[in-house]
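Checklist before submission:
- one chain only
- standard amino acids only
- sequence pasted in full

Submission:
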Amino acid sequence: MEEDLMRRDMLVDEVMRRGMATVDTDRPITHALRLMRKNDVDGVVVIEDGKLVGVATYWDFMVRLGNLRVRSADPSSIYVSSVMNPPRATLTPETPIVEAARLVVEEGAYLMPVLEEGSVVGALEAKDLAKALLDEEVPALNVSMKSPPTVNLSDRVIHARKVMMDSGLRSLATLNEGAVVGVVNDDQIVEAYLNLIMTLPMERQKAQIRHLLIADVGPRHVKAHVESSLGGVAEVMVKNPVKGVPVVDEDRVLVGFVSVLDVARFVMAQA
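Returned file contents:
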């Protein structure tokens, strides 16, 4: 029987991101997205008058940029305050990661500011919990979704956005003629939308966005073999800008999918 190797006393301090990017509420979303790209993070912590007021993630941007009225505006005139949400939870460096995992699962807190003496010192993304599982020997299939939603390279990006919003998944397994080629992420949809909005005149944007294909965006080529351990999948998640990893057989047929939510559920169960 495989041994659970995650330390149950592990703290947020051991997996959090220190020096998380912060932005003021009155900065344009283009500024926030530049910071997110530069720092390779899923979101930003939003402050006003030096105080924490919210968070804004790629998911939040994806939801907002899919709105036709928003797409008709100059992104530099859309402010972070219109995209952010109040933090669903905050942590301290001493918070046990099993508690952080519970907040992901039960509160949908995919980005949580970490506070020390009232000041923001970092943040924890849901996928950071995978860092605690790198030595985990449990088979990945034991914790994976068995029939996850998928998209095809020939599908439109607007379809992928709808599937994400319906399922709550931040990454989707992407297929080509039945074989897994990788995943498409919420951040890729945001960047694709933003690129069209920034480069095309308004009268051409709607048609171009409607016909934009996942193949045009390009999936991220990650996957794990059916015999992989959860630790192996966690390593793929940590080393790549993805929020889910397809599990495939020898023919690259999808047999499971491990999302950041599955990771959080596993960590939570170790309490």
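Reviewer check: The chain is about 35% helix and 20% strand.
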